[in-house]
Amino acid sequence: MTDPRVAGAGVTTFGSYPERTGRDLFAEAGLEALDQSGVPAADVEALYYGNFMGELAEHQGHQGPLMAEMVGVDAPATRYEAACASAGAAIRSAVQAIRSGEADVVMVGGAERMTNIGTAGATDALSIAADDLYEIRAGMTFPGAYALMARSYFEEYGGSREDLAHVAVKNHEHALVNDHAQLQKEISVADALEAPMVAEPLGLYDACPITDGAAAAIVTSEAYAAEHDLDAPVRISGTGQGGDNLALQDRAHYAQTPAADKAAREAYDDAGIGADAVDVAEVHDCFTIAEVLALESLALFERGEAITAARDGTTTRHGELPVNLSGGLKAKGHPVGATGVAQLATIAWVLDGSHPRADAVPDATVGVAHNAGGTVASTTVHVLEVGE
């Protein structure tokens, strides 16, 4: 068994494109991934595609074969749905297919069209990742759910809105040079603290934007990469997935994310590393508190310690462990079905030196990507490595 190689990736510019269709967005990303990889479409043996709200936003289900058609791939195509972790689940299947010998070349990707249905429509569509019977019907939305998680964290471990503001400031600063990012806008701690409140203690700048976009990657076996002389130095060495109860009220903890704990342990064990080997991370910061929870589940910080990581500079591009050099979901944007593959692309580009923020970690050899669904009822974690 050998680790799959990331041969190429494509990511659209994330933003508001209500006039563009999901198929149009994915065609852009998928064709870019093929071009960057040097792999002909005819060699792709499967497409694993993440999408969450296609039926609601575009009245379009059965998107797998549609997206294969859009990129000229004549191969079995399957859509994956795990809320915001849809693309992460697709990546995991691609890794398993290549490791098992079932395929030598897989395109993995995702797309989401959200802005065409407006803020209220997108909020309603996103809410179906929660428990309809016991959360949605009671008026729960994800800003409210993550506000509950933030309040619980503050009560259990300490922390403040100002600590969360530093997370937002950091990620906005990281996104300034990322041409794929939706919010290339610098903000201050004061800006974050003075912004309109969304759900106490989370304000406007604690939340990621509603986003249209797509991402794709070509993942190959080591043998295929060698045979075709591909420039594919980055491999996916570890994969993990965890789950938890769907509704918050059924959880043992609001201030911890056990699904991510499980996924991280599995991914690290699979890669044969510990958390101390990680040089850089892309984590699922749909809200600023989500970044804090992710870092602790990934065992990159002890419980209660990640809340000050951005404030003290540890997770900035100048710090010991840069996190979300892309800008994260917070500033890069969050086209739900595409996010996991966009994270994968970012880590691959940071490790091979081609990302605009790669200079923050010039000697990095290990990166981790954390993709979560809903209030972290689903999580995938992938370890990427460069070098032997």
Automatic annotation (TrEMBL):
Q: Which residues form the Thiolase N-terminal domain?
A: 8-222
BP GO terms, sorted: isoprenoid biosynthetic process
Molecular functions per Gene Ontology: acyltransferase activity, transferring groups other than amino-acyl groups
Which UniProt keywords are given for this protein, alphabetically ordered?
A: Isoprene biosynthesis
Read off the Gene3D superfamilies from this record.
3.40.47.10
Residue ranges of every copy of the Thiolase C-terminal domain listed in the record: 241-385
Recorded protein name is Thiolase
Which organism is this entry from?
A: Halomicrobium mukohataei (strain ATCC 700874 / DSM 12286 / JCM 9738 / NCIMB 13541)
